[in-house]
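G., the chain you wanted modeled:
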Amino acid sequence: MSNQQCQSTEVTASTAGAPLPMTGRTCSSSLSSYSRVTTQDIERLLRQSPSKQCVLDPAPTWLVKAAGTTMTTILVKLVNASLDSGTFLSSMTHAIVTPVVKKPGMDSSSLSSYRPISNLPFVSKLLERAIVHQHVTSTRTVFYQLISRLIAVTIQQRLQSCLFAMMHYWRQIAAWSRLLFC
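Predicted structure as tokens:
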């Protein structure tokens, strides 16, 4: 057994009876509207995803990526069902957590010397990436709409300013012409 595995076993054993940590945080962000994920979206996500895998994966990641249309269709249905219901499958909420020493030479007997490394199932990460992509796309769309409105308002204000200035100058010209040609 390697030194890291031995330390991991010691940390796991020493925290076995400890209560689960309570963070007190809740997610304040929500995906209020979304579009259904398409086959092309999943294919793009599969291409961009690394081929890492987890012990919790029912099939190797390389096999999922190589399975083609059959697996893509299943993943599209799974992601869309999750988006429709607003829930994850319970199997996607589990992770293998491995404590790893933050820096070499740190006190291995102190829990604060470790950082947790979570290894999630591949499909869970794929679903997460699909949601993040939707959120980024939605945010980008709102941002572009905001910028285009801001530009339109700025142009409108400049046009109004120009028109007011022109009207002011025309009135001055009219006043001068009355004085000069009366």
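Residues 122-181 form the longest helix (60 residues).

Shout if anything looks off.
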